Amino acid sequence: DLRVLDAALQREVMARFDHRNLNTDVAEFADGKLIPTGENLARLIAERVQAALGDAARVSSATVAEDASLSATWCPIG
Predict the structure, then answer these.
(1) Please, are residues 28 and 34 in contact by the beta-carbon 8 Å criterion?
(2) What is the pTM of this model?
(3) Which of 6, 17, 54, 68 shows the greatest Cβ crowding within 10 Å of its Cβ?
């Protein structure tokens, strides 16, 4: 159901990361926890979206691109 996916992406990606300072505004990266690399961001997004979707769908990968020549993709194992 694309409505479920759209809601999960809005809540877990757009609301959490859009126009935010990852180093201070995102709990997983704040206070020196995780380093906000593309790889860590892609993994976090995939895990949060998967948790929001539950059994409704399976996240097969997440890609974060800074520009056309720099990106990171995370794929869950299994």
Answers:
(1) yes
(2) 0.89
(3) 17
* Number of residues that this document lists for the chain: 78
What is the C-alpha separation between 47 and 33, in angstroms, rounded? 17
Residue 21 has which token pair?
Answer: 């300072």
- What number of CA atoms fall less than 13 Å from residue 20's CA on the CB side? 17
**For the chain, how long is the longest CA-to-CA vector?**
37
Beta-carbon contacts of residue 24 (< 8 Å; ≥ 6 apart): 30
In angstroms, the CA 2 to CA 64 distance is 21
Q: What is the mean pLDDT of residues 47-66?
A: 95
Q: Rounded to whole angstroms, how far apart are CA atoms 19 and 57?
A: 27
Question: Token pair 């720099």 is at which residue?
Answer: 70
